[in-house]
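Write out this protein's structure.
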Amino acid sequence: MKPWLERGKGLVVGSAQGEALVSRRAFTFAHGVDPSTGVVTDVRSDVRGKNVKGKILFYPYGKGSTTASAWFLETVRLGNNPAAVVTEVVDLSAVIGSVMARVVYGKQIPVLAGVPCSAYLGLKSGAEVSLDAGRGVVRGEV
Protein backbone atom coordinates (compact mmCIF):
# COMPACT_ATOMS: atom_id res chain seq x y z
CA MET A 1 0.00 0.00 0.00
CA LYS A 2 1.20 3.47 -0.77
CA PRO A 3 0.09 6.84 0.60
CA TRP A 4 -2.43 8.72 -1.51
CA LEU A 5 -3.37 12.38 -1.34
CA GLU A 6 -5.69 14.36 -3.56
CA ARG A 7 -6.83 17.95 -3.53
CA GLY A 8 -10.26 19.31 -4.31
CA LYS A 9 -12.47 22.22 -3.37
CA GLY A 10 -14.17 22.18 -0.01
CA LEU A 11 -17.80 23.13 -0.53
CA VAL A 12 -18.90 22.42 3.03
CA VAL A 13 -15.97 22.71 5.42
CA GLY A 14 -15.14 20.25 8.14
CA SER A 15 -13.07 17.15 8.64
CA ALA A 16 -13.85 13.45 8.85
CA GLN A 17 -12.09 10.15 9.10
CA GLY A 18 -13.34 6.66 8.42
CA GLU A 19 -13.91 3.92 5.88
CA ALA A 20 -14.30 4.82 2.23
CA LEU A 21 -17.37 3.75 0.29
CA VAL A 22 -16.38 4.09 -3.35
CA SER A 23 -18.87 4.22 -6.21
CA ARG A 24 -17.72 4.57 -9.80
CA ARG A 25 -21.24 5.50 -10.96
CA ALA A 26 -23.59 8.45 -10.57
CA PHE A 27 -25.21 8.46 -7.14
CA THR A 28 -28.46 9.66 -5.61
CA PHE A 29 -29.99 9.65 -2.17
CA ALA A 30 -33.54 10.04 -3.56
CA HIS A 31 -34.90 6.49 -3.88
CA GLY A 32 -31.26 5.39 -3.84
CA VAL A 33 -30.58 5.20 -0.09
CA ASP A 34 -32.96 3.96 2.58
CA PRO A 35 -32.85 6.77 5.18
CA SER A 36 -33.97 4.43 7.97
CA THR A 37 -30.94 2.17 7.51
CA GLY A 38 -28.39 3.99 5.31
CA VAL A 39 -28.35 1.05 2.88
CA VAL A 40 -27.94 1.86 -0.82
CA THR A 41 -31.05 0.57 -2.60
CA ASP A 42 -30.55 1.97 -6.13
CA VAL A 43 -30.61 -1.06 -8.46
CA ARG A 44 -28.24 0.72 -10.85
CA SER A 45 -25.64 1.46 -8.18
CA ASP A 46 -22.38 -0.45 -8.04
CA VAL A 47 -22.51 -0.16 -4.22
CA ARG A 48 -26.08 -1.48 -3.86
CA GLY A 49 -26.51 -3.23 -0.53
CA LYS A 50 -23.66 -1.29 1.10
CA ASN A 51 -24.27 1.15 3.93
CA VAL A 52 -23.36 4.87 3.77
CA LYS A 53 -23.60 5.36 7.55
CA GLY A 54 -20.37 6.85 8.89
CA LYS A 55 -18.53 6.34 5.59
CA ILE A 56 -16.55 8.77 3.48
CA LEU A 57 -18.70 8.47 0.35
CA PHE A 58 -16.93 8.82 -3.01
CA TYR A 59 -18.82 9.12 -6.30
CA PRO A 60 -18.28 10.96 -9.60
CA TYR A 61 -21.48 13.02 -9.70
CA GLY A 62 -25.05 13.09 -8.48
CA LYS A 63 -28.13 12.16 -10.44
CA GLY A 64 -31.78 12.86 -10.04
CA SER A 65 -33.63 15.87 -8.75
CA THR A 66 -33.20 18.24 -5.86
CA THR A 67 -35.41 15.91 -3.84
CA ALA A 68 -32.17 14.07 -3.09
CA SER A 69 -31.33 16.87 -0.62
CA ALA A 70 -34.40 16.02 1.44
CA TRP A 71 -33.52 12.30 1.37
CA PHE A 72 -29.97 13.16 2.42
CA LEU A 73 -31.34 15.25 5.30
CA GLU A 74 -33.64 12.39 6.34
CA THR A 75 -30.64 10.05 6.63
CA VAL A 76 -29.12 12.68 8.93
CA ARG A 77 -32.27 12.94 11.04
CA LEU A 78 -32.27 9.17 11.48
CA GLY A 79 -28.51 9.01 12.18
CA ASN A 80 -27.63 7.02 9.05
CA ASN A 81 -25.73 9.68 7.08
CA PRO A 82 -22.25 9.48 5.57
CA ALA A 83 -19.43 11.13 7.53
CA ALA A 84 -18.39 13.08 4.40
CA VAL A 85 -18.95 13.23 0.64
CA VAL A 86 -16.27 13.40 -2.07
CA THR A 87 -17.26 14.00 -5.71
CA GLU A 88 -15.68 14.89 -9.01
CA VAL A 89 -18.51 17.17 -10.17
CA VAL A 90 -20.37 19.36 -7.70
CA ASP A 91 -23.49 17.59 -6.45
CA LEU A 92 -25.79 20.35 -5.21
CA SER A 93 -28.05 17.82 -3.51
CA ALA A 94 -25.22 16.70 -1.23
CA VAL A 95 -24.16 20.29 -0.61
CA ILE A 96 -27.69 21.44 0.25
CA GLY A 97 -28.31 18.36 2.39
CA SER A 98 -25.05 18.93 4.25
CA VAL A 99 -25.70 22.62 4.85
CA MET A 100 -29.21 21.85 6.09
CA ALA A 101 -27.82 19.10 8.36
CA ARG A 102 -25.70 21.74 10.06
CA VAL A 103 -28.52 24.28 10.29
CA VAL A 104 -31.29 21.90 11.40
CA TYR A 105 -29.44 19.20 13.36
CA GLY A 106 -26.06 20.75 14.16
CA LYS A 107 -24.27 17.92 12.31
CA GLN A 108 -21.13 18.53 10.30
CA ILE A 109 -20.90 16.57 7.03
CA PRO A 110 -18.04 17.92 4.92
CA VAL A 111 -18.35 17.94 1.13
CA LEU A 112 -15.29 17.99 -1.13
CA ALA A 113 -15.67 18.32 -4.92
CA GLY A 114 -13.27 18.42 -7.85
CA VAL A 115 -11.57 15.13 -7.02
CA PRO A 116 -11.40 13.19 -10.29
CA CYS A 117 -12.40 9.52 -10.16
CA SER A 118 -9.17 8.71 -11.95
CA ALA A 119 -7.31 10.05 -8.90
CA TYR A 120 -8.72 7.33 -6.63
CA LEU A 121 -8.89 4.35 -9.00
CA GLY A 122 -6.86 2.24 -6.58
CA LEU A 123 -8.96 3.24 -3.57
CA LYS A 124 -11.19 0.41 -2.39
CA SER A 125 -14.32 0.51 -0.27
CA GLY A 126 -13.31 -0.18 3.31
CA ALA A 127 -9.97 1.64 3.10
CA GLU A 128 -9.32 4.16 5.87
CA VAL A 129 -9.32 7.74 4.62
CA SER A 130 -9.27 11.18 6.18
CA LEU A 131 -10.63 14.39 4.77
CA ASP A 132 -10.20 18.07 5.58
CA ALA A 133 -12.59 20.00 3.35
CA GLY A 134 -11.40 23.33 4.78
CA ARG A 135 -7.95 22.62 3.34
CA GLY A 136 -9.39 20.78 0.32
CA VAL A 137 -7.51 17.53 1.03
CA VAL A 138 -8.44 13.85 1.16
CA ARG A 139 -5.86 11.17 1.92
CA GLY A 140 -5.52 7.46 2.48
CA GLU A 141 -3.61 4.47 1.14
CA VAL A 142 -4.10 2.70 -2.19
